[in-house]
Design brief:
By secondary structure, the protein is of the alpha+beta class. It has one domain. A 4-stranded mixed sheet has the order 1-2-4-3, with helices on one face.
Length: 77
C-alpha cells in the first residue's frame, strides 16, 4: 500500500526534528517517490563521517538529496 500525503504530513514534524538534530541546515519537506509520498531532505553537502539520517519515520521513507546551499530571497520591493 502506498504512503499517502496525509501519512507523510502526520510525521513531518517528527522527521524534521530528527533530521535537524543531525543536519541543522537541511531543508525538510514532503516529496514523491513513485506512488509514495516521502519525507524529502535537501542537504547543502554530504554529512560528516559517522552521521546518518533516519531511513524512515513511522513507516514513511526519508529520501535525502544533495542540493547545495539554498538561499531565500525576499519578494518584497
Amino acid at each position: 500500500m502506498a504512503v499517502s500525503h496525509a501519512q507523510a504530513k502526520a510525521v513531518l514534524n517528527r522527521a524534521n526534528d530528527q533530521v535537524r538534530a543531525i543536519a541543522p541546515g537541511a531543508s525538510v519537506g514532503i516529496g514523491r517517490d513513485g506512488d509514495d509520498f516521502v519525507i524529502k531532505v535537501l542537504l547543502d553537502d554530504e554529512l560528516d563521517a559517522g552521521l546518518k539520517l533516519p531511513t524512515n519515520v513511522d513507516g514513511v521513507s526519508v529520501v535525502a538529496q544533495i542540493a547545495g546551499r539554498t538561499i531565500a530571497h525576499s519578494t518584497s520591493h
